[in-house]
């Protein structure tokens, strides 16, 4: 488990403090000359510490001495306390600018005392900074980093790479791999669109650490080796030595010719030329295991010549975005529950039927924690096998279950698993490490919503704009997506608890900086917020505050169904996010909240020029209200996420021609009762300008072929959800919907649709409905050959069949049979779900 008090966290805190110290030194705070001098000295000292912390953060946690970790903790505490001093001073000075002669005079005295106090406090902080700097030298922090960078590490840390064991798994442990092997072999051998079997084919396998990428690639490599003239299986690493990779490859390709290759001095170009010469006329099969970055892959790819000999390459990576750039992505799934049980029980008892009844219940709970991940199952099984030799094995198994996620002792397999998983963490840039570590504030088994997590990152100051004009929410969402691409986060469920982040182990309200109360905690008494003197982040989202819980809303805004929105909200000019329950009465002056980016109300919109998210509901829409909405929407140039709903049927044609969204729009959703007659003009005429639109959910009276083609030209569309009363005969062609992943189309009338070969090349999920089943004796059409087999990435198909008057059972069965046949002949054998309605 990675420590949340890591050097990376301390480095981030120091970064925040540096920005505030620079702000403090500005003339508007009118600091004494001596105080300014100390502030500048503190800033320089912290800059030096931050550089060292970043270097220390790249060293694996278990290779740092205890003294270095203590030093990083000291820097963290120093940064927290210094930031408290600066924040308290700024608040005291800013609050003195009240109106009225008496208040102004009092304000002058208040500011003078504040400046006197901060002079003493900055002096104390500076003394502590000097002590921390001295400990850095005493603990030899810089020498620790230098030893690691030079490859001189602790003997325990210099052990062999634990990933190596994945290459030599016992055949008994290769459970549930046969189907995955068959699928990958089929992908390697079948002809792809525009690619003959004689051309070089590159397939990439992506997935998180421990899922079995190396094991799968090795097994396929072993099975296919006899079909090729020469083969090689080489591993890269998160810190690759490309010259060594090339030498390993040459040795694998010809162990006799290149037996001394590692003793020869060859630069990268010479090795590339040697490999290209050797492979030039040969049919080869090479596996490149564990690619961490594109530059490494680019260098390796230069050596792999294309010779039309039917050669094949497999590359594995933990990063899905890298996989897409390497070659044809091949998804790797977790084990099925049945295979997980077989692997688990086989490792411990030999087979499932040999498991004693006393262990069945706890086994199910442990397997559920392992999430069908082979590495986790094998590792935990080795711990449990050892526990079976103890006096009370059942009790030991329950201890293992409760300790999963918090540490499992010093078992050798557990240490290897941690090293394998930690590689993903240490490959992250520092800003992503901080965001990733922050997730640990959530208790185990608590569901984290993406938007909430991004808002918390922003509140904590983890998201910093890279250039002027950058939107913090956009950056936060990109961080979130990158953690997914790197296989580091996945959906989880969390228990509820109270999380208090402090700088002391003995909790004091005056030192709480971040307060999160999670749903279901049942807290009935919360201290007055005035007790939290340095509170920066307050998160009560989804919290069920009991009656009698009174909150001071003077400086902090909380809105629940039981709390009336105060009129003073209009003074929170730096407020970026506001969510209120339905029917909340809002005070006058909401247009003053010019920093607001995410409300869920629609009043005084035209003034909220930074608005990023907007959800509109209405009961009735008349002409005068249409004018208000259009005027407001045309003034909101930052809108990215727009959702529109109505209680009754409502036409949206008034915004189809007169509103043109900016290129920032990434989601547009309408409710089923909000209809455009046809696709709006801003899609038909300007689809190429909507460069960020990835999610579109829209309802129409009629879907025409020309409109479908316009949708197919949207350059970044990933998710399309279409509802229409009726449609023309529709055809999707190659070159349309190039990035689409999910396609849903529902037509109330009979749906007539054909997918041509090469259409929707990346679509994985298709929803189709309703096919209107008409009696063939009345000229009805039950031809369900829609071309599903032409969607090359298809994994899942939902089809809704609707019976109408006169529909006969044979027509329904014919339709189902045609759909099943399409799924069977599809190379991916997608899952098919058919539902009927009347």
From TrEMBL:
Q: Name one GO molecular function term.
A: ADP binding
Q: Which UniProt keywords apply?
A: Coiled coil, Leucine-rich repeat, Nucleotide-binding, Plant defense, Repeat, Signal
Signal sequence residues: 1-27
One Gene Ontology term of the biological-process aspect is: innate immune response-activating signaling pathway
Q: Which residues form the AAA+ ATPase domain?
A: 199-349
Question: Entry's Pfam families?
Answer: LRR_14, NB-ARC, Rx_N, WHD_DRP
Similarity comment: family membership? Belongs to the disease resistance NB-LRR family.
Q: Under which name does UniProt file this protein?
A: AAA+ ATPase domain-containing protein
Q: Which organism is it from?
A: Oryza barthii
